[in-house]
């Protein structure tokens, strides 16, 4: 009886050894494939130039953004039905236009302002002369586009709400008043019951 058990165990180990070898082969193939993929990814990143120092790339992108913004103007009070082609025709006399962007909200409705990017920075001075000109019956506001600095959020002071319980900053605090009912006592008012459960 014990010999039969030993034979079965030996048979199971003989069958599991080829399965184990197959699993080891598949694991080795997957490791080789993963190494090949990593090598290909490193090669592509090297070709694309994406392997750079992050601070250097952000500085370069910031410099590029400042250069583009120096060739762009902000156009305010743009009619909501105005198309980028119409804005381009309006500023065509200033110089060669690279791009016209009319900003819209999350529903796709125009916000009422646009950015015009020129190929030359000299065209910006010409475009500033079109300040207070009319397009679709609206007087345009044309200014130089400013560059947003990362991490420098503009502070907007909020008006104090009359519905808020706290006084605005800088206002003098009223003197502390004691309760007219005695020091430390809390006056509680109990609502009278309309219907008594006891009749």
Automatic annotation (TrEMBL):
Listed A to Z, the keywords are:
RNA-binding
Q: Cite the PROSITE patterns for this sequence.
A: RRM
Keyword RNA-binding assigned to the entry: answer is: yes
On the tree of life, the source organism's domain of life is Eukaryota
Q: Which residue windows does the record flag with biased composition (Polar residues)?
A: 52-63
Q: What residue stretches are annotated with the RRM domain?
A: 71-147
State the InterPro entries in the record: Nucleotide-bd_a/b_plait_sf (IPR012677), RBD_domain_sf (IPR035979), RRM_dom (IPR000504)
Q: Where is the composition biased (Acidic residues)?
A: 1-12
- Renumbered to this chain, region (Disordered) spans 1-21, 46-65
PANTHER family linked: EUKARYOTIC TRANSLATION INITIATION FACTOR 4B/4H (PTHR23236), OS02G0757900 PROTEIN (PTHR23236:SF22)
Any idea what this protein is called? RRM domain-containing protein
Q: Which organism is it from?
A: Salix suchowensis
């Amino acid at each position: 009886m014990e010999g039969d058990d030993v034979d079965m165990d030996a048979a199971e180990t003989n069958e599991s050894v080829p399965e184990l070898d197959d699993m080891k082969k598949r694991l080795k193939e997957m490791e080789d494939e993963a190494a090949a993929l990593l090598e290909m990814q490193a090669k592509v990143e090297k070709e694309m130039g994406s392997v750079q120092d992050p601070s250097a790339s952000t500085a370069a992108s910031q410099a590029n953004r400042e250069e583009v913004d120096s060739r762009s103007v902000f156009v305010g009070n743009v009619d909501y039905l105005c198309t980028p082609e119409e804005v381009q025709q309006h500023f065509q006399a200033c110089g060669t236009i690279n791009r016209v962007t009319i900003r819209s909200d999350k529903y796709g409705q125009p916000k009422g302002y646009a950015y015009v990017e020129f190929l030359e920075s000299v065209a910006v001075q010409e475009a500033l002369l079109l300040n207070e000109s009319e397009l679709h019956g609206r007087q345009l506001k044309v200014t130089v586009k400013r560059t947003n600095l990362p991490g420098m959020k503009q502070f907007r002071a909020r008006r104090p709400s009359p519905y808020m319980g706290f006084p605005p900053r800088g206002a003098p605090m009223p003197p502390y008043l004691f309760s007219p009912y005695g020091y430390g006592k809390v006056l509680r008012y109990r609502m009278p019951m309309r219907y008594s459960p006891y009749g």
